[in-house]
Amino acid sequence: MFKDDFRTFRNKVQQYSDKFDTMTEEATKNAIIMPFLVLLGYDVFDPEEIIPEYTCDVAGKKGEKIDYVILHDGEPTVLIEAKRAGLKLQKQQQGQLYRYFSTNRCRLAVLTNGITYSFFSDINAPNVMDDEPFLSFNILEDDEELFLSSLEQFHKSVFNVKDILTKAVFLKYLKVVEQTLRQDLINPSDELVKYFLSRPEIKTGNRITAQMIDKHRAATREAMLKVMGAVISVNDAPSEQAPQTDTGLNDIINSLPAGNEYRSSDVYGVTNIQVVRNGELIGRLRVSTYHGKLRYDYTELGGSGKLHFLTGANECEKYIEPITT
Fold first, then answer.
1. What are the per-10-residue average pLDDT scores of the chain (325 residues)?
2. Which residues lie closer than 8 Å to 233 by C-beta, 6 or more apart?
């Protein structure tokens, strides 16, 4: 199964974690990115499937090359720009990929350092790579439940550009809605407050002024927080991404080594528990529900930075020393 193959790949990459900072780009390609392409079902030594150092002539520059291109039916379909594992991917690394994208018929492009993967398309304007990726994840830090089904669409056996782009549009819409809701929960926008003020149940007269919007902003925020909280508390239906219940979360925290401070939050159905000692963040435990079973992983932040996959929260005792008095 793809899930099992991915976990094997991820665990192998984790073994290199202490070498990330010193790995060259070429070493990253050989140790991580080529195995990633194999994970997706491609023969990295078959020039009819993968072409390394693919020529992408850019206006004013000849012989420009991109690290890899994936072919389907003899046609370039996915451009891949590789960076060294220790390099943090930022906007400035997108520039080269952006230029290459416009010179090819490819609708898909990937920027990666072997750990973080960002997938781009041209949703906003044809043949112009979008500024923001429609899919982005860190294979060692992000919960696989949030991206694995999208990644599997890139597997050779099921690859279909139309299906991927349809999912890309959906993911982009989802991201915009989530960002907008989060922003409105913090500070409701004028448009949102105006929408509620224009409801027929609220008698505001014919004209909604800026003063009226400002006056009702706090009430709008309070109402949204109340409704969102109610929705979460009554949503008892089982889900692959269901957040932990308060009781379950308390049980988990109570099973952790005593003496530390534990700060919890839910993000996309994943419970993040920060382990704090003497005001310093020393680790992070993540708990999620997958097919009705709890999954755990713990990251050591204060020392080695290693990621550990656990069978239960009580295994954290191996990595978190309780404070003794």
1. 92 90 94 97 95 76 82 92 90 82 86 94 90 90 86 95 92 84 84 90 80 90 71 36 48 80 72 82 78 75 72 80 54
2. none
